[in-house]
Amino acid sequence: HQLHKQSASELVVGGVEENSPAQKAGLEPFFDFIISLGNTRLNQDNDMLKDLLKANVEKAVRMEVFSTKNMRLRELEVVPSNMWGGQGLLGASVRFCSFQGANENVWHVLNVETSSPAELAGLQAYSDFIVGADQVLQDSEDFFTLIEAHEGKSLKLLVYSMETDGCREVIVTPNGAWGGEGSLGCGIGYGYLHRIPAHPHSPKSMNISHTSSTEECNSEEPPAHRYTEVSLTSLNIRLSGDTPLPPPIQRVMDPGRLSHCAVVD
Length: 265
Known about the structure:
Blueprint (H helix, E strand, L loop, with lengths): L8 E8 L4 H5 L6 E6 L2 E2 L6 H8 L5 E7 L4 E7 L13 E7 H6 L2 E6 L4 H4 L7 E6 L6 H10 L5 E7 L4 E7 L13 E5 L12 H4 L4 H5 L12 E3 L18 E4 L9 E2 L2
Antiparallel strand pairs: 1-2, 1-6, 2-3, 2-4, 4-5, 5-12, 7-8, 7-11, 8-9, 9-10, 11-13, 13-14
GO cellular component, one term: Golgi membrane
Pfam family, one: GRASP55_65
GO molecular function, one term: metal ion binding
């Protein structure tokens, strides 16, 4: 997607694997941006992170992380490893994205019909937000195109829940013949009225608890990690753009009627 010309582009964390170095360090999917590793700032779209991880295999290294959930910068300690049982030295997917872009590209689950693919997948009306998938979702249409392409096929989604304040993986199988309206059987909202509500001053986020990242992986014990908070002013970033906001979109997921879109003023 096109980034606002003054928006910072940083490494955002995607999926975090169970028992991975990323999970043990306390990285949270979708909300956490990796700012630096060791003493090296990571703001270039290159292989710097991969090279730094290789140079620090089985060694504890300081990682600076910014959370868009509570708008705070914190320090973690991560141990890159190829011995944890999964792929990669970190065990998490990452990609470059702006802070603004990450917060905008969410799809709010609205009403969920009984016995629909959405209900069978465990999607919760109004409290769930779809924040990612196996492929990068860069604008509003990408999600609807993805659903269309997976008609009758299982699709893995990363979903944030307001109820648990954490992310989880959901497997859904779009099916236009399920017996009701749409291929998911739920309404989807996109736009500034359907973004994840900010809660920077809640006690939960002020403590910067990482339990949500362990809960999503069904881990029984919290990760052993140390972190310290540092002032946000040490990050010279612009978190809001001057561009006008587009109108929010609501629609029922129906591949046959994707052109019928209700725009809410």
